[in-house]
Amino acid sequence: MVHVTARVAVVGEALVDLLWRTGSREARAVPGGSPANVAVGLHRLERPATLLTSWGDDPPGALVAEHLAGTGVEVVRLPTGGPARTTVALAYLAADGSAHYDFLTSWAPTALDLPEDTAVVHTGSLAVAVEPGASRVLELAAAQSALGRLVVADLNVRPAVLPDRSAYRALAERLAGEVRVLKASDEDLAWLYPDLTVGEAAETLRALGPELVVVTRGAEGALGLTAAHRVDVPAPAVAVVDTVGAGDAFQSALLDDLAGRGAVPTDPAVLAAVLARCARCAALTCAREGADPPTRALLDGEGADTAAPDGTRGAETPDRG
């Protein structure tokens, strides 16, 4: 049965990227954040989604608020128990589109109340790495899993926020123990587990509890790992404009499938089809500038796409897919 109205609750940061390109003396302020981008991607895929996030009453926060208001996404601004600062990411973009990031972070929600009709809970990125909010999000993941909800996370490792590799690895392993589906990039795993292959690192995390670990590998495609199977899918050929938001678009498609299916796909043929659709979603995003995920019509070949139907696009760390 396909659950077309099943809601995804996305818990995590909305922020402003200050983008510097090589040779430029001026920065460009672009609202985004991985969870915010994921929520926008879900909306484009016609999947009911609620973004639970926070921002400050400051100029970057005004930009975030304006951006989110134009996306069509249902947004819950989380209480913080006091004045909050909007997270700002300082992005230094090289000529090849790669980026180095520094973060000025603020993530301190005091309550995380999900919509009653939530079917799938998604989190990750800064939301599970920046305290004091990270501990609350991990507690939420554990509680929602205990209630039987499908909890999903994207590691989206940010060493600039938590440079202690062993501490970050412990956090990732704790998160793996609380979710049913865990996504990471090959670069995430290489940083967390420098002495392991990507496959070995993925299996290390899968053994901690997830039914499915998904690893994105940029131009090499993606792999899915369950207790019984490993599934590899190629990346579609595409003329890459940039890779900003590609991993977030992949995650949106994965969450859309999980919510619609109401279960984790473990049959290898089904899983391969799911991952292929996710890879196509990421590839379509790479073919356009910025975090500009496709609509369901474009992704599923049902008709023309209007690129950014809500007139917005966000930004986040260039992702390998």
What does this molecule look like?
The protein has 321 residues and is α/β, with parallel strands linked by helices. The chain has one domain: UDP-N-acetylmuramoyl-L-alanine:D-glutamate ligase (3-Layer(aba) Sandwich). 32% of the residues lie in helices and 21% in strands. The protein has helices at residues 34-44, 59-69, 133-146, 165-176, 186-192, 198-206, 246-261, 268-286, 296-299; strands at residues 7-11, 15-21, 28-32, 49-53, 74-77, 88-93, 99-104, 118-124, 150-154, 181-185, 212-216, 222-225, 230-233. Strands 5-4-1-8-9-10-11-12-13 form a nine-stranded mixed β-sheet, sandwiched between helices. Helix 3 (133-146) links the parallel strand 8 (118-124) and strand 9 (150-154). The protein is globular and about 50 Å long. The relative contact order is 0.16. This is Carbohydrate kinase. GO terms for molecular function: ATP binding; kinase activity. Keywords: ATP-binding, Kinase, Nucleotide-binding, Transferase.
